[in-house]
Amino acid sequence: AAGVIQSPRHLIKEKRETATLKCYPIPRHDTVYWYQQGPGQDPQFLISFYEKMQSDKGSIPDRFSAQQFSDYHSELNMSSLELGDSALYFCASSSQGAETQYFGPGTRLLVL
Amino acid sequence: AQSVTQPDIHITVSEGASLELRCNYSYGATPYLFWYVQSPGQGLQLLLKYFSGDTLVQGIKGFEAEFKRSQSSFNLRKPSVHWSDAAEYFCAVGAYNQGGKLIFGQGTELSVKP
Question: How far apart are CA B73 and CA B55, in angstroms?
């Protein structure tokens, strides 16, 4: 069965650089969620989208923005990267009305 | 405030022994609950979920969990642990009409002794 696809899987950036993370949900899933998992931490909700509209917002820094496109894939844009942004970024998808979220493998971001 | 607590940061069990991982939640709305497993450097795999109905739910890999509303708990169990079960386990809670976001517990790292 098709799963959530995230790219890239690994990313190394310098401080103050920008990064773009991509998420391709499971086919026919219309809702995307982004989570950030710091080293040794639990995943923290950042933001979610349903039908290309932001549906909920969590602890996402103002330096980050995200959007969902017409094909339901989503991109998380991160600017002015800081060392503390080093983390594993998960994308999850679900279909509206179905509460189960299926997670992608994550993008591991390292900021040097 | 909404929260999920996994009291045990690290648990070690012998292979073949039984396992119970604890999860307690505090949520104002009617919750639905999940257990996810994460191997090192990997993503989160769904083990099982509870929405409503039968409070004992079965999942993959021989895991089960019991929802106890009176105790605000959703403990994960397995009768006989295999070495391949060594991983990090996360309990997560969501709520209807709350935007769908999940709140995760701090995780329990499971080690399995031969």
Answer: 11
Distance from CA of A103 to the nearest CA of B (A): 6
* pLDDT (tens digit per residue) in B16-63: 999 999 999 998 777 899 999 999 878 899 999 999 888 999 999 999
**Nearest residue in chain B measured CA to CA from A90:** B43
pLDDT in tens, A22-78: 999 999 999 999 999 998 899 999 999 999 999 889 989 999 999 999 999 999 999
Instruction: Name the B residues in 80-109 with CB < 8 Å from any A CB.
Output: 90, 94, 96, 98-107
